[in-house]
Amino acid sequence: MDILKNSLGQSHDIIEKLVAEGDTVIDATAGNGNDTVFLAHLVGDSGRVYSFDIQSQAIERTRQKLDAQGLSERVKLINDGHQNMNLYVYERVRAVMFNLGYLPGGDHSIGTRAESTIKAINEAMELLTVNGMVTIVVYYGGDSGFEEKEAVMEFIKSIDCRKYTVMKTEFINQVSCPPILVCIERCKGSKF
Ligand SMILES: C[S@@+](CC[C@H](N)C(=O)[O-])C[C@H]1O[C@@H](n2cnc3c(N)ncnc32)[C@H](O)[C@@H]1O
For labeling, which of 14, 85, 128, 175 is most exposed (least CB within 10 Å)? Predict the structure, then answer.
């Protein structure tokens, strides 16, 4: 395998270093359940994953994957938009993963949208523990279009650098709009 992984691979590497047994985390876009399963393994028996998706089809696919691996007890599946996460999560979280775009193998017209995504990123940032991290894999072009990507890129420039460190990783010599990774870490000095 190459050392420079794609954006999704890099997000997993970072989350794997950060999240430990007993942590609480959020998968903001359950989709086919791969990230939820990944997080459920990391938090262990004593941890908790909150996993959101607006499509019942995605929640069902995620449930099946969790059941198949005996991980369902660790995960609360929520068939609602991630922009409402503050209605469901009342504790600090170590990490929040966003994997934007549409459900692979589903309806490409039902994807994440700029306005709700930015509201959700704001809520996720508020929920983070110190040194907790939001990761966002941003898909664009094709059926995803460019509006959400542009809105997210504008928004992250405005984040207060005294409270959060923001990093953007992009590939500059690839074709067909390779996904971009954004990481937002809550700094030590930030007040709750
Ligand atoms: C690229 S997929 C996620 C892939 C997933 N993380 C996985 O491991 O398979 C994006 C998902 O975001 C979901 N989605 C779109 N808008 C949403 C919203 N406002 N809140 C939560 N999920 C949303 C879509 O239904 C879709 O399933």
Answer: 175
Residues 70-95: b if buried by 16+ CB within 10 A, e if exposed = ebbebbebbeebbbbbeeebeeebbb
Model pLDDT for residues 67-81, shown as the tens digit of each residue: 999 999 999 999 999
Q: Is 34 in the pocket of ligand 1 (CB under 6 A)?
A: yes
The answer to the question of residue 191 being in a domain is no
DSSP state at residue 191: -
Is this prediction's pTM over 0.85?
A: yes
**Count of structural domains, the chain:** 1
On the question of pLDDT at 192 being above 70, the answer is no
Q: State which of 8, 15, 53, 138 you would mutate to test the pocket of ligand 1, scoring each by most atoms of that ligand within 8 A of its C-beta.
A: 53
